[in-house]
Amino acid sequence: ERWTYRHSDAVTVLSDDLRDNLVAKIAGTVPDAHDRIRVIPNFVDTDRIRPADPEAGSYRREHGLEGRRVVMYAGNVGLSQSLDLVLDAARKLADRSDVVFVIKGGGFGSAALEEEATGLDNVRFVDFQPKERLGEVLAAGDIHLVPLRRGLARSSVPSKTYSILAAGRPVLASVDEGTEVARVVTDAGAGLAVPPDDPDAFTHALVTLLDDPARAAAMGRAGRSFVERWVSPAAVAERYEALFEQLAARRRR
Of the candidates 171, 152, 150, 153, which has an alpha carbon nearest to the alpha carbon of residue 162? Predict the structure, then answer.
């Protein structure tokens, strides 16, 4: 692994955290370790995923979500995700008939999580949907969740974060402080970030967003603006083009 990094003209990674990790591996063996590792995120199809009326598609109607505030987790259901936070919040908000939680996806922990949610009438489990419906599904959520267990956010950048922002929806992230997702959500003004595995902080932040829909909508607009500048296909292509031109000029010299 280190040999590959040392003999590459450049290495691209998805976040500052991953860059710091790689720089530490080759520092002292190459003179330009920090310059060699570049942060270029994966792009999001900002034409296919766009802000839309949450009630416009058929998704809400199919799953009995019409007219309610939808708090959605979409993705893998496994050991890395703190989905117990979601069920804890659902219990605390069980008396709010205007709120429903949707856990969309599947994985190793699905069966156990569904069993744990027995009796929670405000929780819906929905299977993965065809990728053609991604924009519609993301638009169906009013607030989207990105929960990662402590210690995992420095080595993982959930790509769904950028897709959520492209859909113009606010994010509630439960992740390690100072990591990529926390920085993006906070710096872009696109949602709220709380410490991982903290059910009280998580529920409090969620209620903050639920009780101030105007603020949540503004966060969604800010997130959309961020992805257009930073992770649209055109923005990512420009970064790669600049990198290729720099490397070509270096070779000519």
Answer: 171
